[in-house]
C-alpha cells in the first residue's frame, strides 16, 4: 500500500506564483481527504485508484472552497483587491476542472457523474443555509448540522463505491470527523472578535440573548469589548470545547466497532490532532 501523499500531489495543481502572490487559498481538506484515502485503500478492486480518487476529490473541494472566499459584492476598486477577487474565481474554476481532466484520462467516467451530482447537492445545501441566514431562521444546532453536511457531501458520494464491509460505517465516521473539524474551526472563530459573524456563537447568542444583546451582535460596527463580554457571559468557547470533546468520544467509540482493527488504528492516527488539541491546558480548563 502506498503511503499517504495526497497534499503533495495536489500541490502540483495549486502551487502557482501568480496565485501565491495575489490571493489566498483555503486550507487543504486534510481530514476528509486522508479519511477517504484510508477507506478506499482497503477496497478489493478500487485500492489502485485510492490516490487518484482522493486527489480529484480534494481538488474539487478546494475549488468550491476557493469560490466561497469570493466576496458577494464587487466594490473593490483598488487593483490588488480586484486582482485577488478575480484570481479566486479563476483558481476555483481551474481546480474544479482538473477532476474532469484526470478522471477522463483514467477512463473513470462514472465517477465524474457521481462527483458532479454531489457538487449540485453541495450547492443546494449552501443555498439552503444562506437562505436561513438571511431570514435569521437558523439555530446554532442547525448551523453546525448544515456546515457538516456541506463539508462532507462530496466525500459522502463515495458511499456507493465503498467495500461492502465498510459501506455502512463510512457515512457515520465521515460525519463525526467532519463535525470535529467544524467544531475545531468554530473554536478558533470564537477566540477572534473579527470572525464572529455567522459563527456558531453568533447564532447561539441570537437565540439565547436579550434583544439588546442581539442587536449589538448584529450591528455592522459593534463595540468589540462589549461583544467579548457577551461571548464570555454565554460561555461560547467553553461550550464549543465541550462539544468537540463529546464528538471525539463518539468517534473513538465508533472506531472501536470497526471490523478492521488495522483501519481503526489508522483512523485513530488521522484523528490524533483533535485529541492533542483537547489535551492542551487551555482545552482541559474549558472542558
TrEMBL record:
EC number(s) from the headed UniProt entry: 2.5.1.30
A Pfam family hit: HEPPP_synt_1
Top EC class for this record: transferase
Domain of life: Bacteria
Name of the molecule in the record: Heptaprenyl diphosphate synthase component 1
Parts forming coiled coils: 241-268
Keyword terms, alphabetized: Coiled coil, Transferase
Keyword Cell membrane: no
Organism: Paenibacillus konkukensis
Gene name per UniProt: hepS
Ubl conjugation recorded as keyword: no
Gene3D superfamilies tied to this protein: 1.20.120.1450
GO molecular function: heptaprenyl diphosphate synthase activity
Amino acid at each position: 500500500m502506498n503511503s499517504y501523499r495526497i497534499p503533495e500531489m495536489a500541490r502540483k495543481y495549486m502551487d502557482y506564483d501568480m496565485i501565491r502572490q495575489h490571493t489566498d487559498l483555503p486550507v487543504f481538506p486534510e481530514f476528509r481527504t486522508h479519511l477517504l484515502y484510508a477507506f478506499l485503500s482497503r477496497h478489493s478492486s478500487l485500492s489502485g485508484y485510492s490516490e487518484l480518487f482522493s486527489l480529484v476529490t480534494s481538488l474539487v473541494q478546494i475549488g468550491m472552497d476557493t469560490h466561497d472566499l469570493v466576496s458577494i459584492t464587487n466594490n473593490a476598486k483598488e487593483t490588488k483587491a480586484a486582482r485577488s477577487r478575480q484570481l479566486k474565481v479563476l483558481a476555483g474554476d481551474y481546480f474544479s476542472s482538473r477532476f474532469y481532466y484526470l478522471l477522463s484520462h483514467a477512463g473513470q467516467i462514472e465517477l465524474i457523474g457521481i462527483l458532479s451530482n454531489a457538487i449540485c447537492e453541495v450547492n443546494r445545501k449552501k443555498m439552503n443555509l444562506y437562505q436561513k441566514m438571511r431570514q435569521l431562521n437558523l439555530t446554532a444546532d442547525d448551523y453546525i448540522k448544515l456546515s457538516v453536511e456541506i463539508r462532507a457531501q462530496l466525500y459522502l458520494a463515495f458511499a456507493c463505491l465503498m467495500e461492502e464491509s465498510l459501506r455502512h460505517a463510512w457515512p457515520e465516521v465521515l460525519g463525526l470527523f467532519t463535525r470535529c473539524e467544524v467544531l475545531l474551526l468554530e473554536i478558533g472563530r470564537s477566540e477572534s472578535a473579527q470572525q464572529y459573524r455567522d459563527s456558531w456563537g453568533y447564532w447561539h447568542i441570537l437565540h439565547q440573548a436579550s434583544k439588546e444583546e442581539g442587536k449589538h451582535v448584529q450591528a455592522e460596527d459593534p463595540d468589540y469589548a462589549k461583544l467579548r463580554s457577551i461571548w464570555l457571559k454565554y460561555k461560547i468557547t467553553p461550550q464549543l470545547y465541550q462539544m468537540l470533546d463529546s464528538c471525539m468520544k463518539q468517534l473513538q467509540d465508533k472506531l472501536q466497532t470497526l471490523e478492521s482493527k488495522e483501519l481503526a488504528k489508522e483512523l485513530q492516527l488521522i484523528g490524533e490532532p483533535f485529541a492533542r488539541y483537547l489535551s492542551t491546558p487551555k482545552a482541559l480548563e474549558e472542558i
